[in-house]
């Protein structure tokens, strides 16, 4: 027996979609919060932070997120996405609040790891939920619009950081409280799943590497790895990279804000274009353009307007390229393993998220981050484009072969 629901499109309405957007926004908060506080923690040496400790904490937190995505995503397909979201948001919020009272680097890092375990499942499960609500011809737009929450959360966090830094603990209070406020709304507004008997195959990880899916799985895993390396590497270290390039502290945070504002714009555009021109074609093109723009950022720009424009346009393409990978996944796998497929892509992608801050942090420690970091990012984007090029543009089997999965 597999847990499923009847198609929820007609009854779901506005609130479930909005709540999924908010849940993804919490992931966006987590994406940039460490990047916004690292310069302050390094300059004040609060809790004993130094560049090596900052790199270790950033890496450890992402390990937690990756493990969470790999393990909880398949469980959500089997036992229900609503329950998964409810539990994971609660745990993440409480542990984020606890960071405020961390006495040292070790406890700070441990709390980030444990919070990451809960947070890791939220994004892929929310996307799977939204995809089940929408018709297939709107999958690209549905996914990218939901993911605007990811970067809206990042933009808001960057804005808050500009307002409250050097009081870095305030950011974790705001993030934790925002999550706790969301919990009762999830319970009230997300529709309950109902169980019914179905002939659909039981969702298992093994299905992702069946002959019909193995090329697809390898391709999207590599692309997700490269995409999240870019997303997390840039968001964690961009303020410090720009400081190393000679820009001021305020400019550095402003550029992080601009990068994520570009991401929100790019997501809106990318989903519309992908539904019309084909998700694979647009995703490959987006990765290639991102590579060129990242290379351009290696050149120091004295004209402020040009600099902010370049960072904004880079955000348009870099982050929507990664999200288009998720949109592509929802079109390539049947509904009963969609959450598992998204969870594994996100989980393996988090290995890239771990490598990005780690490599960039090492370059910062060695004094080589600018311009070398941008060359590394440009090469990464090209590898993402190459990985997607080998994937077929259409699913290998009709979507109607399986019953809808549980929401």
Report on the architecture of this protein.
It is a single chain. With 407 residues, this protein is mostly helical. It has one domain (13-191, 205-399): MFS general substrate transporter like domains (Growth Hormone, Chain: A). It is 77% helix and 0% strand. The protein is built from 14 helices and no strands. It has helices at 9-12, 14-44, 51-79, 81-98, 105-119, 122-133, 139-164, 169-189, 214-244, 249-277, 279-296, 304-332, 338-366, 369-389. Mean pLDDT is 80; it is low at 1-12, 193-200 and 398-407.
Chart the SSEs and their pairings.
Blueprint: H1 9-12, H2 14-44, H3 51-79, H4 81-98, H5 105-119, H6 122-133, H7 139-164, H8 169-189, H9 214-244, H10 249-277, H11 279-296, H12 304-332, H13 338-366, H14 369-389
Helix pairs in contact: 2-6, 2-7, 2-8, 2-9, 3-4, 3-5, 3-6, 3-13, 4-5, 4-6, 4-8, 6-13, 7-10, 7-12, 9-10, 9-12, 9-13, 9-14, 10-11, 10-12, 11-12, 11-14, 13-14
Roughly what percent helix? over 70%
Which architecture per CATH?
A: Up-down Bundle
Shape: globular
Number of helices: 14
The total of beta strands comes to 0
Strand content: under 5%
Radius of gyration: 20 Å
Number of domains: 1
Query: Quick one: CATH class?
Result: Mainly Alpha
Average pLDDT, all residues: 80
- CATH fold group: Growth Hormone, Chain: A
Poorly predicted runs of 5 or more residues: 1-12, 193-200, 398-407
Secondary-structure class: mainly alpha
CATH H-level name... which superfamily?
A: MFS general substrate transporter like domains
Largest sheet: none
Distance between the termini: 15 Å
Order of helices and strands: HHHHHHHHHHHHHH
């Amino acid at each position: 027996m597999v847990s499923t629901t009847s198609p929820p499109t007609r009854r779901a309405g506005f609130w479930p979609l909005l709540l999924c957007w908010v849940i993804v926004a919490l992931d966006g908060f987590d994406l940039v919060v460490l990047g916004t506080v690292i310069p302050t923690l390094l300059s004040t040496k609060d809790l004993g932070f130094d560049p090596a400790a900052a790199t270790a904490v950033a890496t450890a937190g992402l390990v937690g997120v990756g493990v969470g995505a790999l393990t909880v995503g398949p469980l959500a397909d089997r036992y229900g996405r609503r329950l998964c979201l409810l539990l994971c948001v609660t745990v993440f919020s409480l542990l984020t609040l606890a960071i405020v009272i961390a006495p040292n680097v070790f406890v700070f890092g441990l709390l980030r790891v444990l919070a990451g375990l809960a947070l890791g499942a939220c994004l892929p499960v929310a996307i799977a939920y939204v995809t089940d609500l929408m018709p297939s011809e709107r999958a690209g737009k549905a996914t990218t619009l939901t993911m605007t929450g990811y970067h809206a959360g990042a933009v808001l966090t960057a804005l808050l950081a500009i307002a409250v830094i050097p009081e870095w603990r305030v950011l974790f209070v705001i993030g934790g409280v925002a999550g706790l406020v969301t919990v009762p709304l999830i319970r009230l507004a997300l529709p309950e799943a109902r169980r019914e008997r179905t002939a659909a195959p039981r969702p298992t990880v093994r299905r992702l590497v069946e002959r019909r899916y193995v090329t697809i799985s390898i391709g999207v895993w590599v692309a997700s790895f490269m995409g999240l390396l870019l997303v997390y590497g840039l968001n964690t270290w961009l303020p410090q990279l720009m400081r190393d390039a000679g820009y001021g502290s305020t400019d550095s945070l402003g550029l992080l804000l601009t990068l994520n504002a570009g991401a929100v714009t790019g997501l809106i555009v990318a989903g519309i274009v992908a539904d019309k021109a084909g998700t694979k074609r647009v995703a490959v093109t987006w990765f290639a353009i991102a590579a060129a723009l990242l290379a351009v950022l290696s050149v120091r720009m004295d004209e402020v307007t040009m600099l902010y424009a370049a960072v904004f346009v880079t955000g348009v393409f870099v982050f929507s390229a990664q999200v288009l990978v998720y949109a592509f996944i929802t079109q390539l796998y049947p509904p009963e393993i969609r959450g598992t497929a998204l969870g594994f892509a996100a989980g393996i992608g988090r290995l890239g998220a771990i490598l990005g801050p780690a490599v960039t942090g090492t370059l910062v420690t060695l004094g080589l981050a600018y311009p070398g970091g941008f060359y590394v990012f440009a090469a990464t984007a090209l590898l993402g484009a190459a990985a997607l090029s080998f994937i077929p543009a259409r699913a290998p089997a009709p979507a109607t072969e399986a019953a809808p999965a549980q929401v």
